Amino acid sequence: MLAGGGTGGHIEPMLALADALVRRTTAPGGTPRAGTSRVSMPRAVAETRALLAELEADVVVGFGGYVALPAYLAARRSGIPVVVHEQNPLPGLANRVGARLAAAVAVTTPGTPLRGAVHTGMPLRPAITGLDRAALRAEAREHFGLDADRPTLLVFGGSQGARSLNTAATGAAAELRAAGIQVLHARGPKNTEVAVPAGEVPYVVVDYLERMDLAYAAADLALCRSGAVSVAELSAVGLPAAFVPLPIGNGEQRRNALPVVEAGGGLLVDDAELSPAWIGSTLVPVLTDPARLSELSRHAAAAGVPDADEELADLTLSVVRA
Fold first, then answer.
1. 108/205 Cα distance (integer angstroms)
2. How many CB atoms lie within 10 A of CB 108?
3. Burial class (CB within 10 angstroms; exposed 0-12, middle 13-18, buried 19+) of 206
4. CA-to-CA distance for 130 and 279, rounded, in angstroms?
5. DSSP class of 238
C-alpha cells in the first residue's frame, strides 16, 4: 500500500513507484486507491488497519503528508513493515515519525536528516527519465507553435502559475524578442490577464502544460519555481533552469535547488530580485550563448538521478523479502 498526499510533490513520486513495482511483479495493471477525509487520528488509524487487512498488504510505503501518518501507525500496529520516502531536504512531521518506525528510509537529497536514510533520488515517470530532448525537439517546437531553431525559454510556476514569474517574463518580452529568444509560458489557468501581443518572434502563452515532456524537449532553459519534483525532473532530462524559490515556508525550495546550482546546472534568484531587468541582464546572455547552455545542460544532467523509481522499488521489494 502506498500512502501520501497533500501536494503533487507527494503524489508524483508515489505513482512513479507504483508503475515501477507493477513492471517488476505479477501484480495487475492497476493500483488500489482509497479516498481520505478529515477524521480523528484514532479513527483514521482504525480505518487504515481495515484497509491493510482487506488488501493483505505486505508493506506500506509512505511519502509524507497528512495521509501518511495514520498509515505508518496502522502498519506498526498490524505488524506490517514500513518504507519511508522523503522528497524534501527538510522532512515533515509524518515522515519524521514514520522514519522511527520504518524498516527502510529513502531520501531525494543527500544529507536529509533522517536516521539510517539511503539516497535514492526522486522517483519519476519513465516518460520523463527516458526523454531524449534532442530527438524530440523538432516535434515539440512544432507542437507548441514555436520556430524550429531559435533559443527557447520555458516559463512555468507550477500547476497554478506564479504571479512574480508571470510579471517578470512578460515584462521582458520585448527584450527577449529583440535577442531572438522565443518563449513558451505556462501562466496558470486563473491568470487570464497574462498575455503578450503577437510578434515576429513567438511568445506562446498557455494556461497549463499537459505535455511536460514536450515542454522540456522544446526548451533550452527554464525559469521556474524549485519544487522537489520540478528540480528532479529538470535534472533528469538535463534541462538547466533559473530557479526562483517560493518566498514562503521553511526555505525548502531553496534547499531543493542548491545541489543542482552548486553542481553548475542552474541559476538561483530570490523571488524579490526577479524582474524584467534581471531576465535581460542574466538570462538573455545565457540563452544566446550555445556553449554556456551546453555546459549548464551537462552539469544539470550529472546532478540528476534518472533511475530513482527502480532504486526505490528495489528497496521496497528487499523489505518485503526480508
1. 32
2. 25
3. middle
4. 30
5. T
Identical topology for domains 2-124+307-321 and 130-303:
yes
> Has domain 130-303 been given CATH number 3.40.50.10420?
no
How does 290-304 read in b/e, with b if 16+ C-beta sit within 10 Å? eeebeebbebbbebb
Q: What is the pLDDT of residues 226-257, one digit of tens each?
A: 999 999 999 999 999 999 999 887 788 999 99
CA dihedral 242, 248, 251, 256 (to 10 degrees): -40
C-alpha cell at 307: 533511475
For the record, the C-alpha cell of 126 comes out as: 519513465
pLDDT of 35 reads 55
**Could you tell me the residue ranges of all domains in the chain?**
2-124+307-321, 130-303
The structural architecture, per CATH, of the domain 2-124+307-321 is: 3-Layer(aba) Sandwich (3.40)
User: Where do we find the cell 524549485?
Assistant: 226
For the CA atoms of 173, 178, 184, 189, what is the dihedral angle to 10 degrees?
20
Sheet arrangement for strand 266-268: 203-206, 182-186, 152-156, 221-224, 241-243, 266-268
pTM of the full structure: 0.88
Query: Closest Cα to residue 229, out of 220, 217, 241?
Result: 241
Give the C-alpha separation, 258 to 237, whole Å.
Answer: 17
Category of 264 on φ-ψ map: left (φ > 0), alpha (ψ -120 to 50) or beta: left
14-54 residue pLDDT tens: 999 999 999 987 654 444 555 555 668 899 999 999 999 99
